[in-house]
Amino acid sequence: MGKRVIVIVLDSVGIGEMPDAAEYGDRGSNTLGNIAKARGGLNLPHLQALGLGNIAPIQGVDPSSAPKACYGKMAEVSPGKDTTTGHWEIAGVVLEKAFPTFPKGFPDAFIQSFEEKIGRQILGNEVASGTEIIQRLGEEHVKTGRPIVYTSADSVFQIAAHEEVIPLPELMQICGIAREMLDGDLRVGRVIARPFLGEPGNYYRTTNRHDFAIEPPHKILLDYVQEAGLGVMAVGKIKDIYYGHGVTEFVLTKGNQEGADKTLTYLEQDMPGLIMTNLVDFDMVYGHRNNVEGYAQALEEFDVRLPEILARLREEDLLVITADHGCDPTTPSTDHSREYVPLLVMGNTLRSGVDLGIRTSFADLGQTVADYLETTSLPHGQSFLAEVFQPK
Ligand SMILES: O=P(O)(O)O[C@H]1O[C@H](CO)[C@@H](O)[C@H]1O
Ligand SMILES: [Mn+2]
Ligand SMILES: [Mn+2]
Protein backbone atom coordinates (compact mmCIF):
# COMPACT_ATOMS: atom_id res chain seq x y z
CA MET A 1 0.00 0.00 0.00
CA GLY A 2 1.13 3.55 -0.69
CA LYS A 3 1.47 6.54 1.53
CA ARG A 4 -1.39 7.91 3.56
CA VAL A 5 -1.93 11.09 5.51
CA ILE A 6 -4.56 11.30 8.24
CA VAL A 7 -5.51 14.82 9.28
CA ILE A 8 -7.75 15.11 12.33
CA VAL A 9 -9.12 18.61 12.90
CA LEU A 10 -10.30 19.11 16.47
CA ASP A 11 -12.82 21.83 15.70
CA SER A 12 -12.09 24.98 17.74
CA VAL A 13 -9.29 23.49 19.87
CA GLY A 14 -7.04 26.58 19.80
CA ILE A 15 -3.84 26.87 21.82
CA GLY A 16 -3.54 30.56 22.67
CA GLU A 17 -4.15 34.04 21.30
CA MET A 18 -2.59 35.14 18.04
CA PRO A 19 -0.68 38.45 18.08
CA ASP A 20 -3.65 40.16 16.39
CA ALA A 21 -6.28 38.63 18.71
CA ALA A 22 -7.19 42.07 20.11
CA GLU A 23 -8.48 43.13 16.69
CA TYR A 24 -10.97 40.29 16.99
CA GLY A 25 -11.94 41.06 20.57
CA ASP A 26 -10.11 37.94 21.69
CA ARG A 27 -7.30 39.10 23.92
CA GLY A 28 -6.39 36.42 26.42
CA SER A 29 -8.28 33.66 24.63
CA ASN A 30 -6.65 30.28 25.00
CA THR A 31 -9.06 27.43 24.47
CA LEU A 32 -6.86 24.58 25.70
CA GLY A 33 -4.93 26.59 28.29
CA ASN A 34 -7.93 28.29 29.87
CA ILE A 35 -10.06 25.13 29.99
CA ALA A 36 -7.19 23.33 31.71
CA LYS A 37 -6.81 26.19 34.19
CA ALA A 38 -10.53 26.47 34.92
CA ARG A 39 -10.72 22.74 35.38
CA GLY A 40 -7.64 22.50 37.61
CA GLY A 41 -5.98 20.35 34.95
CA LEU A 42 -6.80 18.19 31.96
CA ASN A 43 -6.16 14.46 31.85
CA LEU A 44 -4.80 13.85 28.35
CA PRO A 45 -2.09 11.19 28.75
CA HIS A 46 -1.94 10.16 25.10
CA LEU A 47 -1.88 13.67 23.67
CA GLN A 48 0.68 14.48 26.35
CA ALA A 49 2.86 11.58 25.16
CA LEU A 50 2.68 12.97 21.63
CA GLY A 51 3.92 16.33 22.88
CA LEU A 52 0.81 18.49 23.31
CA GLY A 53 2.27 19.95 26.51
CA ASN A 54 5.49 20.80 24.69
CA ILE A 55 3.64 23.29 22.48
CA ALA A 56 2.36 25.56 25.24
CA PRO A 57 1.71 25.35 28.97
CA ILE A 58 -1.48 23.38 29.66
CA GLN A 59 -2.24 22.59 33.26
CA GLY A 60 -2.14 18.83 33.83
CA VAL A 61 -0.46 18.21 30.48
CA ASP A 62 3.24 18.44 31.24
CA PRO A 63 5.81 18.64 28.48
CA SER A 64 7.03 15.18 27.56
CA SER A 65 10.77 14.52 27.74
CA ALA A 66 10.56 12.35 24.63
CA PRO A 67 7.49 13.40 22.63
CA LYS A 68 6.35 10.75 20.18
CA ALA A 69 5.25 13.37 17.67
CA CYS A 70 6.83 16.43 16.12
CA TYR A 71 5.07 19.42 17.61
CA GLY A 72 4.41 23.09 17.06
CA LYS A 73 1.65 25.57 16.51
CA MET A 74 0.34 27.36 13.45
CA ALA A 75 -0.76 30.94 12.87
CA GLU A 76 -3.61 31.86 10.57
CA VAL A 77 -2.64 34.28 7.81
CA SER A 78 -6.14 34.79 6.46
CA PRO A 79 -8.28 37.38 8.20
CA GLY A 80 -11.03 35.64 10.16
CA LYS A 81 -11.55 32.91 12.69
CA ASP A 82 -14.19 30.65 11.26
CA THR A 83 -14.30 27.04 10.16
CA THR A 84 -14.20 27.72 6.45
CA THR A 85 -11.31 30.17 6.66
CA GLY A 86 -9.30 27.81 8.86
CA HIS A 87 -9.91 24.65 6.85
CA TRP A 88 -9.38 26.43 3.54
CA GLU A 89 -6.04 27.76 4.72
CA ILE A 90 -4.96 24.24 5.72
CA ALA A 91 -5.82 23.21 2.15
CA GLY A 92 -3.87 26.09 0.58
CA VAL A 93 -6.36 28.96 0.30
CA VAL A 94 -5.30 32.24 1.88
CA LEU A 95 -8.07 34.82 1.90
CA GLU A 96 -7.28 38.45 1.22
CA LYS A 97 -10.61 39.66 2.50
CA ALA A 98 -12.48 38.14 5.40
CA PHE A 99 -15.92 36.71 4.77
CA PRO A 100 -18.44 39.43 5.69
CA THR A 101 -20.13 39.45 9.07
CA PHE A 102 -23.38 41.16 10.00
CA PRO A 103 -23.31 42.49 13.56
CA LYS A 104 -26.50 44.47 12.88
CA GLY A 105 -28.29 41.74 10.96
CA PHE A 106 -28.65 41.38 7.21
CA PRO A 107 -29.62 44.36 5.05
CA ASP A 108 -33.39 45.05 4.83
CA ALA A 109 -33.42 44.85 1.05
CA PHE A 110 -31.83 41.42 1.18
CA ILE A 111 -34.27 40.14 3.79
CA GLN A 112 -37.22 41.47 1.82
CA SER A 113 -36.23 39.75 -1.34
CA PHE A 114 -35.43 36.55 0.61
CA GLU A 115 -38.92 36.61 2.13
CA GLU A 116 -40.47 37.02 -1.30
CA LYS A 117 -38.49 34.13 -2.70
CA ILE A 118 -39.34 31.70 0.10
CA GLY A 119 -42.95 32.81 0.46
CA ARG A 120 -42.65 33.31 4.21
CA GLN A 121 -41.74 36.26 6.38
CA ILE A 122 -38.94 35.75 8.83
CA LEU A 123 -38.27 36.36 12.53
CA GLY A 124 -35.07 37.54 14.16
CA ASN A 125 -32.39 38.79 11.77
CA GLU A 126 -30.00 39.50 14.60
CA VAL A 127 -26.82 38.25 16.22
CA ALA A 128 -27.77 35.47 18.60
CA SER A 129 -26.82 32.20 20.16
CA GLY A 130 -28.77 29.45 18.45
CA THR A 131 -29.98 27.68 21.56
CA GLU A 132 -31.08 30.96 23.13
CA ILE A 133 -32.93 32.36 20.13
CA ILE A 134 -35.05 29.24 19.64
CA GLN A 135 -36.24 29.47 23.24
CA ARG A 136 -37.01 33.16 22.83
CA LEU A 137 -38.65 33.11 19.39
CA GLY A 138 -39.66 29.45 19.13
CA GLU A 139 -43.23 29.90 20.20
CA GLU A 140 -43.87 32.77 17.80
CA HIS A 141 -42.23 30.73 15.06
CA VAL A 142 -44.54 27.79 15.72
CA LYS A 143 -47.57 30.11 15.70
CA THR A 144 -46.66 32.01 12.55
CA GLY A 145 -44.55 29.57 10.53
CA ARG A 146 -41.90 32.24 10.11
CA PRO A 147 -38.36 30.82 10.06
CA ILE A 148 -35.89 32.28 12.55
CA VAL A 149 -32.90 33.94 10.89
CA TYR A 150 -29.81 34.76 12.93
CA THR A 151 -26.08 35.21 12.62
CA SER A 152 -23.00 35.39 14.88
CA ALA A 153 -19.50 36.81 14.88
CA ASP A 154 -18.93 34.37 12.02
CA SER A 155 -19.94 34.83 8.43
CA VAL A 156 -23.08 32.73 8.77
CA PHE A 157 -26.71 32.99 7.72
CA GLN A 158 -28.49 30.54 10.01
CA ILE A 159 -32.10 29.46 9.64
CA ALA A 160 -33.81 27.77 12.57
CA ALA A 161 -37.18 26.08 12.15
CA HIS A 162 -39.24 23.55 14.09
CA GLU A 163 -39.24 20.31 12.10
CA GLU A 164 -43.01 19.99 12.51
CA VAL A 165 -43.63 23.55 11.32
CA ILE A 166 -41.27 23.70 8.35
CA PRO A 167 -40.52 20.12 7.28
CA LEU A 168 -36.83 19.34 6.72
CA PRO A 169 -37.00 19.22 2.91
CA GLU A 170 -38.54 22.69 2.84
CA LEU A 171 -35.99 24.05 5.30
CA MET A 172 -33.20 22.67 3.10
CA GLN A 173 -34.84 24.25 0.07
CA ILE A 174 -35.09 27.60 1.85
CA CYS A 175 -31.41 27.33 2.76
CA GLY A 176 -30.57 26.55 -0.85
CA ILE A 177 -32.33 29.76 -1.90
CA ALA A 178 -30.41 31.74 0.72
CA ARG A 179 -27.16 30.13 -0.42
CA GLU A 180 -27.76 31.14 -4.00
CA MET A 181 -28.62 34.70 -3.00
CA LEU A 182 -25.55 34.94 -0.78
CA ASP A 183 -23.06 33.63 -3.34
CA GLY A 184 -22.82 36.96 -5.13
CA ASP A 185 -21.75 40.29 -3.69
CA LEU A 186 -22.43 39.29 -0.09
CA ARG A 187 -20.35 36.07 -0.28
CA VAL A 188 -21.39 34.88 3.16
CA GLY A 189 -19.23 31.96 4.36
CA ARG A 190 -22.01 29.58 5.26
CA VAL A 191 -25.76 29.16 5.26
CA ILE A 192 -26.78 26.73 8.00
CA ALA A 193 -30.05 24.87 8.49
CA ARG A 194 -30.81 24.68 12.21
CA PRO A 195 -33.83 22.42 12.70
CA PHE A 196 -35.26 21.90 16.15
CA LEU A 197 -38.06 20.09 17.96
CA GLY A 198 -39.82 20.30 21.33
CA GLU A 199 -42.29 22.45 23.18
CA PRO A 200 -42.25 26.05 24.50
CA GLY A 201 -39.50 26.33 27.11
CA ASN A 202 -38.02 23.04 25.95
CA TYR A 203 -37.03 23.51 22.37
CA TYR A 204 -33.96 21.48 21.44
CA ARG A 205 -31.91 21.27 18.27
CA THR A 206 -31.87 18.05 16.31
CA THR A 207 -28.84 16.49 14.62
CA ASN A 208 -30.27 17.37 11.20
CA ARG A 209 -28.19 20.54 10.97
CA HIS A 210 -26.85 21.07 7.50
CA ASP A 211 -24.18 23.48 6.29
CA PHE A 212 -24.30 25.05 2.84
CA ALA A 213 -20.75 26.11 2.12
CA ILE A 214 -19.22 28.33 -0.50
CA GLU A 215 -16.92 27.09 -3.23
CA PRO A 216 -13.17 27.59 -2.74
CA PRO A 217 -11.74 30.21 -5.13
CA HIS A 218 -9.16 27.86 -6.64
CA LYS A 219 -7.93 24.29 -6.49
CA ILE A 220 -7.11 22.99 -3.05
CA LEU A 221 -4.99 20.25 -1.54
CA LEU A 222 -7.84 17.75 -1.87
CA ASP A 223 -8.08 18.39 -5.63
CA TYR A 224 -4.37 17.80 -6.04
CA VAL A 225 -4.46 14.59 -4.02
CA GLN A 226 -7.27 13.32 -6.21
CA GLU A 227 -5.50 14.40 -9.39
CA ALA A 228 -2.49 12.40 -8.27
CA GLY A 229 -4.70 9.32 -8.44
CA LEU A 230 -5.01 9.00 -4.67
CA GLY A 231 -8.09 8.69 -2.49
CA VAL A 232 -9.61 11.47 -0.38
CA MET A 233 -11.81 10.15 2.41
CA ALA A 234 -13.76 12.86 4.24
CA VAL A 235 -15.23 12.35 7.71
CA GLY A 236 -17.78 14.76 9.22
CA LYS A 237 -18.13 18.29 7.86
CA ILE A 238 -15.05 18.06 5.63
CA LYS A 239 -16.95 17.47 2.38
CA ASP A 240 -19.25 20.44 3.01
CA ILE A 241 -16.46 22.77 4.08
CA TYR A 242 -14.51 22.12 0.88
CA TYR A 243 -17.62 22.08 -1.30
CA GLY A 244 -16.88 18.48 -2.24
CA HIS A 245 -13.60 19.42 -3.90
CA GLY A 246 -11.42 16.36 -4.48
CA VAL A 247 -13.51 14.14 -2.20
CA THR A 248 -13.57 10.48 -3.27
CA GLU A 249 -15.70 9.16 -0.43
CA PHE A 250 -17.34 10.86 2.50
CA VAL A 251 -19.31 10.05 5.60
CA LEU A 252 -21.27 12.51 7.72
CA THR A 253 -21.23 11.99 11.46
CA LYS A 254 -23.46 12.75 14.41
CA GLY A 255 -20.61 13.54 16.78
CA ASN A 256 -17.02 13.03 17.88
CA GLN A 257 -17.35 9.36 18.77
CA GLU A 258 -18.78 8.50 15.39
CA GLY A 259 -16.11 10.68 13.80
CA ALA A 260 -13.44 8.61 15.52
CA ASP A 261 -15.22 5.38 14.52
CA LYS A 262 -15.41 6.36 10.85
CA THR A 263 -11.78 7.46 10.84
CA LEU A 264 -10.87 3.99 12.13
CA THR A 265 -12.99 2.40 9.39
CA TYR A 266 -11.15 4.34 6.69
CA LEU A 267 -7.83 3.55 8.37
CA GLU A 268 -8.59 -0.14 8.00
CA GLN A 269 -9.08 0.19 4.26
CA ASP A 270 -6.18 0.04 1.84
CA MET A 271 -6.65 3.31 0.02
CA PRO A 272 -3.51 5.42 -0.32
CA GLY A 273 -4.09 9.18 -0.08
CA LEU A 274 -5.73 11.45 2.45
CA ILE A 275 -8.15 10.77 5.28
CA MET A 276 -9.45 14.03 6.70
CA THR A 277 -11.70 14.22 9.74
CA ASN A 278 -13.43 17.10 11.46
CA LEU A 279 -14.55 16.52 15.04
CA VAL A 280 -17.16 19.19 15.57
CA ASP A 281 -18.50 18.55 19.08
CA PHE A 282 -15.73 20.59 20.73
CA ASP A 283 -17.00 23.64 18.88
CA MET A 284 -20.68 23.05 18.36
CA VAL A 285 -21.73 21.31 21.55
CA TYR A 286 -19.33 22.85 24.08
CA GLY A 287 -17.34 25.83 22.77
CA HIS A 288 -20.29 27.92 21.60
CA ARG A 289 -22.20 27.02 24.75
CA ASN A 290 -19.36 28.09 27.06
CA ASN A 291 -19.57 24.62 28.58
CA VAL A 292 -16.11 24.29 30.10
CA GLU A 293 -16.68 20.96 31.82
CA GLY A 294 -18.28 19.43 28.72
CA TYR A 295 -15.42 20.68 26.55
CA ALA A 296 -12.86 19.24 28.98
CA GLN A 297 -14.60 15.88 28.99
CA ALA A 298 -14.81 15.82 25.19
CA LEU A 299 -11.05 16.40 25.04
CA GLU A 300 -10.49 13.57 27.50
CA GLU A 301 -12.81 11.31 25.52
CA PHE A 302 -10.86 12.02 22.34
CA ASP A 303 -7.66 11.23 24.20
CA VAL A 304 -9.11 7.85 25.14
CA ARG A 305 -9.72 7.07 21.45
CA LEU A 306 -6.22 8.08 20.37
CA PRO A 307 -4.51 4.71 21.05
CA GLU A 308 -6.98 2.99 18.69
CA ILE A 309 -6.01 5.41 15.97
CA LEU A 310 -2.28 5.11 16.66
CA ALA A 311 -2.53 1.31 16.66
CA ARG A 312 -3.86 1.38 13.11
CA LEU A 313 -1.08 3.52 11.66
CA ARG A 314 0.90 1.65 9.07
CA GLU A 315 4.50 2.01 8.04
CA GLU A 316 3.95 4.89 5.64
CA ASP A 317 1.17 6.74 7.43
CA LEU A 318 1.54 10.31 8.58
CA LEU A 319 -0.91 11.42 11.26
CA VAL A 320 -1.64 15.07 11.97
CA ILE A 321 -3.72 16.45 14.83
CA THR A 322 -4.62 20.10 14.58
CA ALA A 323 -7.52 22.58 14.74
CA ASP A 324 -9.17 25.31 12.66
CA HIS A 325 -9.53 28.21 15.15
CA GLY A 326 -10.29 28.68 18.84
CA CYS A 327 -13.56 28.90 20.79
CA ASP A 328 -12.54 29.58 24.36
CA PRO A 329 -15.50 28.58 26.55
CA THR A 330 -14.09 30.39 29.60
CA THR A 331 -14.50 33.87 28.06
CA PRO A 332 -17.86 35.69 28.07
CA SER A 333 -18.05 35.43 24.28
CA THR A 334 -19.74 32.33 22.87
CA ASP A 335 -18.03 32.91 19.53
CA HIS A 336 -14.80 31.64 18.01
CA SER A 337 -11.47 33.11 19.05
CA ARG A 338 -8.48 34.13 16.98
CA GLU A 339 -5.91 31.62 18.18
CA TYR A 340 -2.95 29.57 17.16
CA VAL A 341 -3.80 25.95 16.51
CA PRO A 342 -1.79 22.98 17.77
CA LEU A 343 0.23 20.91 15.35
CA LEU A 344 1.17 17.32 16.16
CA VAL A 345 2.70 15.24 13.39
CA MET A 346 3.68 11.64 13.76
CA GLY A 347 4.30 8.42 11.89
CA ASN A 348 6.04 5.16 12.50
CA THR A 349 8.90 6.04 10.17
CA LEU A 350 9.06 9.75 10.96
CA ARG A 351 11.25 11.56 13.43
CA SER A 352 9.78 12.24 16.81
CA GLY A 353 10.27 15.12 19.19
CA VAL A 354 11.16 17.71 16.56
CA ASP A 355 10.05 21.21 17.56
CA LEU A 356 8.36 22.60 14.45
CA GLY A 357 8.07 26.01 16.08
CA ILE A 358 5.45 28.58 15.16
CA ARG A 359 4.38 28.01 11.57
CA THR A 360 3.46 31.26 9.84
CA SER A 361 0.43 29.75 8.10
CA PHE A 362 -1.98 26.82 8.44
CA ALA A 363 -1.02 26.26 4.79
CA ASP A 364 2.34 24.91 5.94
CA LEU A 365 0.44 21.79 6.91
CA GLY A 366 -1.26 21.45 3.53
CA GLN A 367 2.00 22.05 1.71
CA THR A 368 3.66 19.33 3.80
CA VAL A 369 0.86 16.90 2.93
CA ALA A 370 1.23 17.77 -0.77
CA ASP A 371 4.98 17.27 -0.45
CA TYR A 372 4.62 13.92 1.30
CA LEU A 373 2.01 12.59 -1.15
CA GLU A 374 3.99 14.05 -4.08
CA THR A 375 1.10 16.01 -5.54
CA THR A 376 1.13 19.44 -7.21
CA SER A 377 2.34 22.07 -4.73
CA LEU A 378 -0.06 24.52 -3.13
CA PRO A 379 0.15 28.24 -3.92
CA HIS A 380 0.74 28.97 -0.23
CA GLY A 381 2.59 27.34 2.64
CA GLN A 382 6.06 26.07 3.38
CA SER A 383 6.56 22.35 3.72
CA PHE A 384 8.15 21.13 6.93
CA LEU A 385 8.48 17.59 5.60
CA ALA A 386 12.28 17.72 5.65
CA GLU A 387 12.15 18.39 9.38
CA VAL A 388 9.98 15.40 10.22
CA PHE A 389 11.38 12.98 7.69
CA GLN A 390 13.88 10.21 8.42
CA PRO A 391 16.76 9.49 8.02
CA LYS A 392 18.12 11.66 10.77
O1 LIG B 1 -25.10 29.59 18.45
P1 LIG B 1 -25.15 28.54 17.40
O2 LIG B 1 -26.44 28.44 16.70
O3 LIG B 1 -24.68 27.19 17.88
O4 LIG B 1 -24.18 29.01 16.24
C1 LIG B 1 -22.81 28.84 16.21
O5 LIG B 1 -22.55 27.89 15.20
C2 LIG B 1 -22.17 28.58 14.06
C3 LIG B 1 -21.50 27.71 13.07
O6 LIG B 1 -20.55 26.83 13.64
C4 LIG B 1 -21.32 29.68 14.61
O7 LIG B 1 -21.13 30.69 13.69
C5 LIG B 1 -22.12 30.11 15.78
O8 LIG B 1 -23.04 31.05 15.36
MN1 LIG C 1 -14.64 25.22 13.25
MN1 LIG D 1 -18.23 27.14 15.46
Automatic annotation (TrEMBL):
Q: Which coarse location class applies to the principal site listed for this UniProt protein?
A: cytoplasm
Q: What does this protein do?
A: Isomerase that catalyzes the conversion of deoxy-ribose 1-phosphate (dRib-1-P) and ribose 1-phosphate (Rib-1-P) to deoxy-ribose 5-phosphate (dRib-5-P) and ribose 5-phosphate (Rib-5-P), respectively.
Protein residues bound to Mn(2+) 1: D11, D324, H325
Q: Does the keyword Transport apply?
A: no
Quote the HAMAP family the UniProt record gives. Phosphopentomut (MF_00740)
Give this protein's Gene Ontology molecular function annotations: magnesium ion binding; manganese ion binding; phosphopentomutase activity
Coiled-coil intervals: none
Gene designation per UniProt: deoB
Which cofactors must be present for this protein to function? Mn(2+)
Q: Which reaction does it catalyse?
A: alpha-D-ribose 1-phosphate = D-ribose 5-phosphate; 2-deoxy-alpha-D-ribose 1-phosphate = 2-deoxy-D-ribose 5-phosphate
> Which Gene3D superfamilies would you find in this protein's record?
Alkaline Phosphatase, subunit A, Phosphopentomutase
One term under GO cellular component? cytosol
The UniProt annotation places Mn(2+) 2 binding at D283, H288, H336
* Enzyme Commission no: 5.4.2.7
The entry's family comment says:
Belongs to the phosphopentomutase family.
Alphabetical keyword list: Cytoplasm, Isomerase, Manganese, Metal-binding
Write the protein's name.
Answer: Phosphopentomutase
Q: Which NCBIfam families match?
A: deoB, PRK05362.1
Quick check: keyword Magnesium in the entry? no
Protein location: Cytoplasm
Give one GO biological process term. nucleotide metabolic process
What CDD domains does the database record attribute to this sequence?
PPM (cd16009)
| Free-text cofactor note | Binds 2 manganese ions.
Tree of life domain: Bacteria
